[in-house]
Predict the structure.
Amino acid sequence: MPKALDTTDSTKGAVQVRAFRPKKDSKAMYAIAEKLPEWFDEDALEVIEEDLDECPGFVAEIDGVGAGFILYYSPASIPAPSRYELIWLAVSPKHHGKGIGTALLERLEKELISLDPAAELIVWTEAESSRSKHYAMTRKFYHKHHFEDWFIDASDMEYWEVERLYLRKRLGAEKPKKTHVSRRERRRIHHQSKKDGTDGAEN
Ligand SMILES: CC(C)(COP(=O)(O)OP(=O)(O)OC[C@H]1O[C@@H](n2cnc3c(N)ncnc32)[C@H](O)[C@@H]1OP(=O)(O)O)[C@@H](O)C(=O)NCCC(=O)NCCS
């Protein structure tokens, strides 16, 4: 069990989680992502650099030094009013396993519930078929935090090179608002997923 962290007090040794400030934090957070080549290749780093300019999130600091970050999209690319997407989560390797990823995730969850009592958080990561032992740890982290496996996306393998596992977690007490997907859109998703070999999960 990772040690419980103090996320509110900035006294020595404590971890502080605060809102991400692009101008102030981007460089240091990018440097953390660069230290994780087993997870983030050059293409991913390029996207991380762009997202650090544009997306909201939180950073974790230990004695004022950046130790990790979490970024999210709202709304997620898949249409649903209460669906938020965790897009990047990274903790400096020397601090892995100390509860910092958990502190960042908990802070984000708290934020999303306060924004939307029906909030649902989704994330995708490499599926088991990629055989990466590093991403096996990542999936373990999400499962430990009660994300459920949702569907495997095997589309566009030339671009992604791996199957992607989507996971989701309902955060608030309220049921997610009913998503209106037109019959025509349902048919399009159905045909697309048959073509791509995904299970067509659109809800
Ligand atoms: C995944 C990650 C954010 C977790 O943050 P963390 O601070 O190391 O994790 P915590 O200490 O809060 O939680 C520990 C739990 O996470 C899991 N875990 C995942 N990666 C781990 C790692 N590298 N070291 C230790 N535990 C890890 C374990 O299940 C562990 O619990 P257990 O020891 O009881 O099995 C972090 O390890 C990381 O940056 N990994 C590389 C980048 C990545 O995978 N990002 C997500 C991409 S989708």
User: Anything to note?
Assistant: The two ends are 33 Å apart (CA to CA).
